[in-house]
Fold Amidohydrolase family protein.
Amino acid sequence: MIIDSHEHLILPTESQIKKLEDAGVDKAILFTTTPHPEKANTIQEFKNEMSILFKVLSGEKNHKNDMERMRNNINDLMEVLNKYPNKFYGFGPVPLGLSLDETISWIEKYIISNNLKGVGEFTPGNDEQVKQLEIIFQALENYSYLPIWVHTFYPVTLNGINILINLTKKYPKVPVIFGHMGGYHWINVIDFVKQTPNAYLDLSASFSTLVVKMAIAEVPNKCLYSSDAPYGEPLLNKQMIEYLCDDEKIKNDILGNNVLKLLNLNS
């Protein structure tokens, strides 16, 4: 089974399913979204959609409004998952800044009860927000089957990545997906993932095919095919893996088996 392990909810959903079918992808793991850049036809429309995301990344947000936004986004996600259960799995967001008990309560109410398969995407806008992830890690020790997916490209710094690395080592029961392989710091991240059982690599948004080639060569059992749609294309990212990987078993693992194993799924 071929699974795109990281896509954001795209509207209309039928267009997202068509992209999967055109790419020969069986299922995708959906993440919530606030902006919808797929709606944009001009650069100004794109700027308008992305302005909300930039505010989130920079930390310019009201905590109460942020939680309400997450609840609404989860509702939108669940509507799609319930309508197309044969096409999608889901990951759900968890707010930063809650107490440990509040975080566990949120996970129970919005992640576990909805049968979501992991938490994230977390998009830390600064090093302090990366440090705040420790509460999430503490909560997830109770749910070791739930991975955490963290954005590690810009604006996350090398210092922020090192904070995340230390959290991953400190909480070995928590599976951690390093989204976008650390961006420009991909060598550091690949080296770390290679020696860390609970660390995994998301292959989307790579700025070079060489980065993906090295990841496949070093940690094929830790690589997860993904497109980050609508920011990437399922077909193109799948073709890149097929082009770079000659070994049929490794190719099948990266395109689906690795994430099925990580999430304890049969299909």
